[in-house]
Specification:
binds adenosine-5'-triphosphate, Rossmann fold, binds magnesium ion
């Protein structure tokens, strides 16, 4: 099922029933267990959910770049019409990663190799993800272009990571994700480690780049307020599955989300202008992904759960245009409203 129908426009990224499991000595961790969505050119899809729900796993799966002992076990990823599940690692490195889809990794700004200058780090990315030939000096021109585009002076190329502030390092990491000119960029918590002022600057930068370059983003964060600011549509994940997907206006609008999990997530977000005696929280914790519960994986923590929720997994249903929900209660409520 397509999440949004856009007549005549081909999605830049189309994901179908994607599963990535980590094969540990204790068993297979089903961290991504059948997720489908489309991303259209110029769109930002926000990915949210509690820690461990599979956000980073989804991000790395989109580059077919699982960390060991992970492996894509099922599904399809079409990037700009090219199927990347099943491609060899060599083909992925040369033709797909960074040139078609790139990623700003969670915490990447703190992992820049300290002994290389920014120029050397960017050259390494170029060598790894292109033919390596550069007869016309294109790589130098691209490095300068993108370092400037992210608001840094050209001479940053000759500096070492430890000479830069956190905000500058994050801009470098974004420039590195951009400079092979991919269509889709996965950003995994790109502003989490920054103070609020720098956070706002980086968010504005990301928004500006999208506007000016027509980029499409998968934007991962646990911070719903940031998603409300940046995402066109939101996918809420719970225990490796999609709980709800819809336009930001729908999820954050007056009627609010349809899935009890999304409702709880929103209720647990602190609000500056609303004084509450105690912040809401979701009792219990996410399930073990080696042996997840039968039925709806959220049922053990859901105050609306009925017998059916514990026995039968809810299918993904389309409640309205582009609004997908996997929840028996949400489906019943919606049917009730329609009659
Ligand atoms: N390399 C790995 N080996 C085994 N299990 C893993 C590995 N990486 C992630 N997992 C497991 O997969 C599940 C999803 O992890 P993931 O990192 O995708 O979550 P996340 O939503 O990004 O969390 P966070 O918000 O904390 O970044 C978790 O249960 C995690 O323990
Ligand atoms: Mg993560």
């Amino acid at each position: 099922m397509s999440d949004t129908s856009k007549a005549g426009v081909r999605p830049v990224l189309s994901v179908k029933n994607l599963k990535l499991h980590y094969f540990t000595s204790k068993g297979a961790v089903r961290a991504l267990d059948g997720v489908s969505f489309d991303l259209y050119p110029g769109e930002t899809l926000g990915l949210v959910g509690e820690s461990g729900c599979g956000k980073t796993t989804t991000g790395v799966a989109l580059l077919n770049m699982p960390s060991p002992p992970g492996r894509i076990v099922e599904g399809s990823i079409l990037i700009d019409g090219t199927e990347i599940v099943g491609l060899s690692d060599r083909a992925l490195r040369r033709d797909i990663r960074w040139s078609k889809i790139s990623m700003v990794f969670q915490g990447a700004m703190n992992c820049l190799t300290p002994v290389y200058t920014i120029r050397e780090l960017m050259e390494e990315t170029w060598n790894e993800h292109s033919s390596g030939n550069d007869p016309q000096g294109t790589v130098e021109a691209l490095m300068i272009k993108y370092v400037r585009l992210v608001g840094l002076p050209e001479n940053v190329l000759d500096r070492y990571p430890h000479e830069l502030s956190g905000g500058m390092k994050q801009r470098v990491v974004i420039a590195m994700a951009l400079f092979l000119e991919p269509k889709v960029i996965v950003m995994d918590e790109p502003t989490t480690a920054l103070d609020v002022i720098v956070q706002a600057q980086i968010l504005n930068l990301i928004k500006g780049l999208k506007r000016d370059l027509g980029l499409s983003y998968i934007f991962i964060t646990h911070d719903l307020a940031t998603e409300a600011e940046i995402a066109d549509k939101i996918m809420v994940m719970y225990a490796g599955k999609m709980a709800e997907l819809g336009d930001s206006e729908k999820i954050f609008g007056p009627r609010g989300p349809a899935h009890p999990y999304t409702q709880k997530l929103l209720a647990s977000t602190p609000r500056l202008r609303k004084r509450v005696s105690e912040l809401a929280f979701i009792p219990g914790s996410p399930p073990d992904l080696i042996d997840p519960p039968r039925g709806c994986r959220f049922a053990p923590r859901c105050s609306f759960a009925k017998a059916k929720c514990f026995s039968t997994e809810p299918p993904v249903a389309e409640l309205g245009p582009g609004h997908l929900v996997a929840c028996w209660k949400a489906m019943e409520d919606e049917e009730y409203e329609r009659t």
